[in-house]
Amino acid sequence: MSSRKFSFFRTTAPMPFLALAFALLAASGCSNGRAAAPEEETVVGYHSPISMGEVVSGETEPHSFEPDYGEFQAPTGKWITGGGIGVSISAGFKRPGEPAEAWVQAVEPGKTSELADRAVRYKLTERDRNDAYVRTVEESLKNLDSWNGYTGFRVKLPEKAGVRYYFSVEILHGSTVEDTAASVVEVPVQEVAADLALDRAVYPADAEIVVRLVNRGRTTLFYGLDYRLERDGEDGWTGVPARENTGVPAIGIQLSSGLTWEQSIRIANLAPGIYRVSKTVEGMGTPIERTLNAEFRVE
Q: Does pLDDT of 23 surpass 50?
């Protein structure tokens, strides 16, 4: 899951992923949205989510994708915000070596000619942990095309992980900065370190399970409300059917480093045996995906 233009994420809160579109829980969990026919396997019980989940504990540094304009001229609104100029800038999580881009375009009639004697300065700068300037990775000075009032800039991020960048766009009149837009691009450490645990090791056949996801790594996790409930048997792990017509909202959740998230699941009529809850997470700005498991026993 990589960056989105102008997507300044709140890193510990659920966000709409498909505008609360509902996916059916699968007969073998809630991951593929298809209900299995009754004859496919013996029903040993059912399960369904009863909470949307919430961040319950953990300590982490505040993570912001809003740049500190500091050494930049602060936005004035002369051109970019309400001034007839459209600006788009890559922001958020990206992988090492991925491209980042920005563009500026006159969106109101007459703005192209007004900007004829202006220049656009694009700049990608590396920052330290306190967002202070480290170095300029790449810089480009361009003018708007006189025909369509458009200019753009594309840069390949360095092959380096665990780095934060500012991507800035400035409208210049001579040496004077008349307006500014900027974003933060985060290239995280390429790792996923997380644990999935339950509040108990043994449950009765009818109970509420509390699933706890802990982000122990340095990379923000991305996942949904979906999960998979399985039973251990002669044929290995097989899915436990979900309750008929049970669904979860298609929501994407981000969990910052050091935080813990919990979700409750209702189980009912489960036969005695060994079970597990499985959940798949991925690292934001990485190609890494992990399926985590937490086992329990029903007596």
A: no
Beta carbons of 118 and 85 less than 8 angstroms apart: no
Higher pLDDT, 180 or 3: 180
- What mean pLDDT value characterizes the chain? 85
Structure tokens at 272: 């005695």
CA distance 186 to 123: 15
In the chain, where the domains are located: 14-61+190-298, 85-187
Neighbouring CB atoms inside 10 A of 1's CB total: 18
Q: Return the CATH fold of 85-187.
A: Coagulation Factor XIII; Chain A, domain 1 (2.70.50)
pLDDT of residue 10: 35
Kindly state which CATH superfamily the domain 14-61+190-298 is placed in.
Answer: Intracellular proteinase inhibitor BsuPI (2.60.40.2360)
Give the integer Cα–Cα distance in Å for 205 and 266. 10
> Which of 13-27, 30-44, 68-82, 285-299: highest mean pLDDT?
285-299
Tokens of 170: 């400035």
Do residues 48 and 244 make contact, with C-beta atoms less than 8 angstroms apart?
Answer: no
